[in-house]
Amino acid sequence: MLSAYKVYRYDHLESPAVTAGNAAVLIGAQNGLFPDMGYAIPGEMGGLWAGEKKVCDGFFLAIDDVPLLKADACELSPTATAFHYRMQKEELHVVRRQFIADGIGGCVIELTIENLRSAPRMAEVSFTVRTDILTVAAARGEDGLELGRDVGEYDEQTQAFYARDSRNPWHAVWGADKGNRVLQADLPQTVYGFGNTQGKGINGRLFYRLRVAAGGQATMRLFVAGGFASRSKAEEALETLRSEAQALDACKQTRMAEHLALSETSLPESMLMRCFNWAKVCEDWLTRALPGGGMALCADLPEHPVLYGDDWALGLSALLPQGGVARVMEMLRTLVRVSEAAQLAPGRLARCVSLGGRVKQVGGVRESAQFVALVHRTLLWSGNAAFAKEMLPMTGLCVSYLRRSTRGFTDVQAQLLGDLRRALEGQAYILRLLCEDDAEMCTALEGLPVPEEAPLAPEAPLEEAALWHGAQGHVEQMIGCLMQMAERELPGLPGALRTQKAAPGVLLEAKAAAGFVWPLVSHLFGVQPDAGAKVIRWNPHTPIGWDGWVIERLFIGEACFDVRSERVSPSKARYTIRTDAEGWRVLAVANGEEKLLDLSGEVTLEMGD
């Protein structure tokens, strides 16, 4: 599964590369370098970040006194990034593979040296880390903290370098496997062959020697970790990486393979298929674990290192049809816990949360309405009554806050009308699912103005245009919008979608996936579920020129579905929806008529477009 997602790059290697885990992210270039990049803190948004703390600007390697300046090829995959170096003069081929294990604020670098000579040899490896320990808030002077210059020292006993910010208790560590003894350690003024990046960091260099058989290979692991409040915590993290790196790598690959198997699509347009399938990867890269427990979605990388953020509900919603229902439920729980811990006013929710779990901005009417609507949407895909009961106290508070803020739903601004309607519809659904009275919500809905169906604005962004065309049945125009969105992805980072209004420097944007995923799910595959009622409203389409499409292992509730389209004539397609689960029904829309059909194994329909 993972091998099918590998991407090899041989040109435009100055493009960004992302290696991510739920506790850390490493951002550099596809040539293996770490240029000064980013706008939130000019030139400082690349490198290794662990939670809200930046650890280093990057790391740099040399073999036999030859710096690995620029890779000849970059290999990107969902779990790791690898750089290939052809050292023809030295008769070596070097591969630097890096991954970030789940739950640990550090990076594992696997260095493999292949000896192309017919005689054994010793290869000398120098490993330099350029620290730059900071937080975005401190660098901007927003939290009263002042950044100091980094200081560092080599510890012979643990065979590792340690560094910290001289004014703050922020620690970093780097070293190698226990089996690789350090020959020499120093603090050079500049990184040999590379020069220094900007900032207040230091260079800590370690030398190793690796024996390589004739025509053979040898591998060593190197580690960088940080964001720790004490040196003892840094030592513990290094020990964990040294003893468990291989198991952590295997665990992450297994988890990601299982995740990517869900909602897997096959489309005639390879660019669309790649973006849809890789969107799961990019959303995983944006998922962060909070220090106090729970998880959330980072707004983007690397410019705005906050959780939730602008249009957070839209970003979370994209996970639902991609096998991420359980993840969305946990993120909503986390948002409730964080908001309650911050003692926000009843019905108010956090809008932006730091990676350390602090509320940075409080949401208003729109965010509370979107919370209720997202709980509703999550229940449509999960049918989980226990989750509905768990969320009911907060959704009730949100509706009460909405009522107070709009004078009993009589004073609603036009731009909030849609959000408010969806919130009331959502609360009514939650109450019905729990067999409670929804009359008050229905009455409030009846009192709201009915929004007029507006035409598509000429300047509408592509993601909005795609959804509008899909809802109108203009499937070819919808695909055209999605193709334009796919063409904006970053070279070498499939699924790295960004909205047209994305800030400069943004590589991944959580909410952008929603504008791509939902048109395909709702208006191409035509799947609109109500898991609580075990009913799927189904109105699929096949664009002109397409022979068909497939989405497999689409989970709705506890049931797994395969949905398929096959072209049978220029104007007709055969559609099949299949499941092994019992008790499900399909509300099919064929030729303008609705038919409620029992889904006993599968349902097949022929429909014209």
Describe the structure in your own words.
The structure is a single chain. With 609 residues, the chain is of the alpha+beta class. The chain is built from 12 helices and 33 strands. The strands form 7 sheets. The protein has a 9-stranded antiparallel sheet, with helices on one face. Strands 2, 3, 4, 5, 6, 11, 15 and 16 form an 8-stranded antiparallel sheet that branches. A 5-stranded antiparallel sheet has the order 18-28-29-30-33. α5 (325-341) runs antiparallel to α6 (365-382). The chain is globular. The model has no long low-confidence stretch (mean pLDDT 94).
- Cα gyration radius (Å): 26 Å
Strand ordering within the main sheet: 1-7-8-9-10-17-14-13-12
Class by SSE composition: alpha+beta
The low-confidence runs, each spanning 5 or more residues with pLDDT under 50, are none
In angstroms, what separates the terminal alpha carbons?
33 Å
Helix percentage range: 25-40%
Query: How confident is the prediction overall: mean pLDDT?
Result: 94
Helix count, DSSP H or I runs of 4 or more residues: 12
Shape estimate: globular
The percent range for strand residues is 25-35%
Q: Please outline the major beta sheet.
A: 9 strands, antiparallel
Strand count: 33
